[in-house]
């Protein structure tokens, strides 16, 4: 088990850069290596998870250090007062900006459909692929991944909703062995001070290096 990489910390909140492949907290499998345990051990005190981040995703993850702050942060996420920005690499070229208002099922396969909205902005065209910013306005299970599939721009590295041939290409040619989804930024009002709080996490080498190699290939083909 490795330690947590801190992005922000005060007496009420701690923000860390979650790596891909690690769950936020223990699920049905009761696995020992989860972010809650890593952060708890790093700060030496109990911490409270206040939002979700897919196991396969990386980036900004918040924990509260007391129950009152946890409730306030949870309320802010529920009320959509937290601005979330993800970076994603997709197959295909979406519009410059598109607001995807498409209900999704509560679970992975079953359950009633619930409202879900994501704003996607195209940042860079890379041949047959595109780097996009995805800003979910709601917080549904696998929402960004499902919405990208819905607009026929599946996420690279997504074994559930993506395309196997493109995942294999990026694994074999660019060394990408994970989901290309990164929680780059969270913006919110600090629940205790009322001040604006912006927490950012840069792309790690496991995403930045494959992206750089893709850019080199695209530039060489021009």
What attributes characterize this protein structure?
12 strands; alpha+beta; 10-stranded mixed beta sheet; Pseudouridine synthase; two-stranded antiparallel sheet; 222 residues
Question: Care to describe what's here?
Answer:
The protein has 222 residues and is of the alpha+beta class. The chain has a single domain (6-221), classed as Pseudouridine synthase. Helices cover 26% and strands 31% of the residues. The protein is built from five helices and twelve strands. It has helices spanning 35-43, 67-78, 143-150, 164-174, 205-221; strands at 6-9, 13-18, 48-49, 58-64, 83-91, 97-101, 104-105, 113-114, 117-126, 129-136, 181-189, 196-200. The strands form two sheets. Strands 1, 2, 3, 4, 5, 6, 9, 10, 11 and 12 form a ten-stranded mixed sheet that branches. Strands 7-8 form a two-stranded antiparallel sheet. A hairpin with a 7-residue loop joins strand 7 and strand 8 (113-114). The relative contact order is 0.17. The mean pLDDT is 94.
CATH 4th-level superfamily:
Pseudouridine synthase
How would you describe the shape?
Answer: globular
CATH topology category name? Pseudouridine synthase
Topology as a string of helices (H) and strands (E):
EEHEEHEEEEEEHHEEH
At the first level of CATH, the class is: Alpha Beta
Instruction: Provide mean pLDDT, rounded.
Output: 94
Oligomerization: single chain
What is the number of independent domains?
A: 1
Overall strand count: 12
Rg on CA atoms, Å:
18 Å
Roughly how many Å apart are the termini?
44 Å
Runs in which pLDDT lies below 50 for 5 or more consecutive residues are: none
> Given the helix and strand composition, which structural class is it?
alpha+beta
Q: Summarize the biggest pleated sheet.
A: 10 strands, mixed
Strand proportion, as a percent range, falls in 25-35%
Percentage of residues in helical conformation: 25-40%
How many helical stretches?
5
The CATH architecture designation is 2-Layer Sandwich
């Amino acid at each position: 088990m490795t330690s947590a990489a801190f992005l922000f910390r005060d007496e009420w909140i701690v923000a860390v850069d979650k790596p891909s492949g690690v769950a936020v907290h223990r699920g049905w499998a009761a696995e020992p290596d989860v972010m809650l345990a890593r952060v708890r051990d790093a700060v030496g005190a109990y911490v409270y998870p206040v939002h979700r981040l897919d196991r396969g995703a990386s980036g900004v993850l918040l924990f509260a250090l007391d129950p009152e702050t946890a409730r306030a942060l949870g309320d802010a996420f529920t009320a959509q007062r937290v601005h979330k920005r993800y970076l994603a690499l997709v197959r295909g070229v979406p519009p410059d900006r598109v607001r995807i208002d498409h209900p999704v099922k509560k679970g992975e396969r079953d359950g009633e459909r619930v409202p879900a909205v994501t704003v996607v902005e195209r940042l860079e065209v890379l041949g047959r692929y595109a780097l996009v910013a995805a800003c979910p306005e709601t917080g549904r299970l696998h929402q960004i991944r499902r919405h990208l599939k819905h607009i026929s721009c599946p996420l690279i590295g997504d074994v559930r909703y993506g395309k196997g041939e493109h995942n294999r290409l990026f694994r074999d040619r660019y060394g990408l062995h994970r989901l290309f989804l990164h929680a780059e930024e969270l913006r919110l009002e600090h629940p205790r001070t009322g001040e604006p709080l912006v927490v950012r996490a840069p792309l790690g080498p496991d995403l930045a290096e494959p992206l750089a190699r893709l850019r080199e290939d695209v530039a060489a083909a021009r």
